[in-house]
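Q: Joint fold for the lines below.
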Amino acid sequence: MSEIKRLSEREIQDLSKLSNKLREQCLTMIHNARSGHPGGTLSALDLILVLYKKVLNLCRDWCNCPTWAQRDRFVLSKGHASAALYSVLANCGYFCEDELSSFRKLGTRLQGHPGCNCLPGVEIPSGSLGQGLSIANGIALALKLDKNPSKVFVMLGDGEIQEGQVWEAAMSSSHYKLDNIIAIIDRNRLQIDGETESVKSLEPLADKWKGFGWDVIEIDGHDYRQIYAAYQEALCKTVPVVIIANTIKGRGVSFMENNAGWHGKPTNEDEYNTAIEELRGKC
Amino acid sequence: MLTDKKPVSSLRAAYGETLVELGKENPNIVVLDADLACSTQTVKFQKAFPERFFNMGVAEQDAVGTAAGLAYSGKTAFFSTFAVFASGRAWDQVRCSVAHPRYNVKIVATHGGVTVGEDGASHQALEDISLMRSLPNMTVIVPADSIETRAAIRHAALTPGPFYIRLTRPNLPEVFDAKEYKFTGSASVLLEGQDITIATFGETVIEALKCSEILEQKGISAEVISVPVIKPLDDDAILNSVSKTGAILTVENHSIIGGLGSAVCELLSEKMPVPVKRIGVRDEFGQSGKYDELMKKYGLTANVFVNDALGLLERKNNKK
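A: Joint structure:
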């Protein structure tokens, strides 16, 4: 195996700074929309950010060519983290950052959950949980038929994998030897009604995936070094790989962290101001 | 006579053979099945193009999602299983992963209606047309014989967007002439008449024609319309016929809720209210039995619905 590339200190500092900016954008989008999902957005953000900035093979001119055939694909199966994806896509230049303010408003391309064929960079619609891995498998099969070496990354929520379809799909990935699939589980351990382990336990999670024929990499999903290393390692595997990323729901805003209550509610004015102040204090 | 003895052939075999032809013509055709490849006849494609065939096992939801991913990537994906599973088990996947993004997924669902037979209620899709018709972007087709099946499959392969095509399990008499038949998406008048319209699709087309012959002996002139495309409904064909006859009987191997009868009522109640009689399974589940027994039990034979036609005519005449 070739030597695994590592992020420099400078790159890590830049990502950290950028992530604070994007966290602020996400919270502002949700606040202005008076609705959305801050908890799972903030837990997923670092994973999506590193993917787009450091890992995905994307056309250099991607804002004019979002469907370049050789691109790596990213499927956001946990569609309620849409704000995280939109803020990263806008920062990458897929569309103007000004458009973020239209999030969840009538006529917007930034639908509450990713919509259809309208926003550059969004590969597939999602929102009804459990469907992304099957679609990613279909994309991966098509890439193999077309002898296209691109990879498919798919992000699932941890609560999401209580959906039976995920395990049907997990069987398909290994049966069809889809070494071009990399799944990322945003393991923030919380779902709407509380802790995943009390609502319906997922553990032993790594063993479940191994039992379905997957390789498993476990990381801290907010540590840029670990995130990047996991993606690099996953790209070298010859079987489907799942990265179980241990994350913190609401990461970056202390009163939201590890609180299931922030799964799907917007901030009031005071909460918003406090959150933004805290994020800016970290820059 | 339109109902003179005709050759009987398999719709499913016609589907499998058409898939192979399409596979030869277009390398982007892929086929998925959910452990029913022999029953649905996708096995023919599997043998011809194993690298483009994906058996997804007993996992219909995953199969629909995988078909969506293949279609998103430029393939034309046919997915087959029994109608009850394609429409019911995987409905949300069809809704969110296929219909909403308008992917090129062609669901060819076999074993529709009560005529599945001995397998009974769990396997008899009586709600599938209703479920699929309510989805935006979905085209819903039920061919009446193997000739219409070949043409409908070919039409779906060449037309962008999601399709739901329901096939019957039993072999059926060939209603259409293979040399003349063209699939246009429109309804077609099989028999012109003045007193009453009978609209139907699938295996009851032949029964509707038989019904018209019995009615003729009673001095009643029935117009028989074949409606292979339930959605989008050919509004003009229905309105044209009903403007002439003033009454319509709808016949379907499906629940009377949400199928052709409902579609016709939705149209006529807004555009041209006339007496309607819906024939179909009346809000109940099916059961085990032989083809003929089930058709009779659920009122889907010509002899049974002649009485419905007479009742409808009476309503029409009382209205005048």
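Q: Anything notable?
A: Residues 12 and 39 of chain B are 8 Å apart (CA to CA). Residues 302-319 of chain B form the longest helix (18 residues).
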